Write the structure tokens for this entry.
Amino acid sequence: MLPRPDPKPNTSPTIKNYYRKFKEDRDPWDEGAPDMADFRQVLMHWGITKKQLPVVRRRLAVKATLFAILAIWGCWYLLTKDSWVSAGIPAIISGSTVAICNGWRAQVLYRERFTYFKDWFLWGWFDWVGKETPIAQAERLKYEGALDHE
């Protein structure tokens, strides 16, 4: 009897394999990960050059606006038509999701300062009114406390 060959690793394009690879490449604390405090490294990681920045900003803002209009149209359709499931809900979900994500990217590129999506989504309204977010306040106090103990 011939020896069995070693089984090959599962390389089929399944969702589980894709998610595993996705998580491996996304750890912000890895050695090769960009420093989020250095905006040039963030741009390099996103594949944007300084020359392309105005065009990318404009395109993201236009895309966010168009998808926000799609979400508003979905709300209008949902409220005025009888068959709301066919167009209203998908328009609201897709329009608002894409508008929010592109709005975050555009905000990062306009301010030239990286903010994690969850922080922007949960505490972004603090930036609009000019207040310090609770997360940034806790980090500042921790940093100031560390300086006091030295």
About this structure: The CA atoms of residues 28 and 86 lie 40 Å apart. The radius of gyration is 22 Å. The longest helix spans residues 53-80. The mean pLDDT is 76.
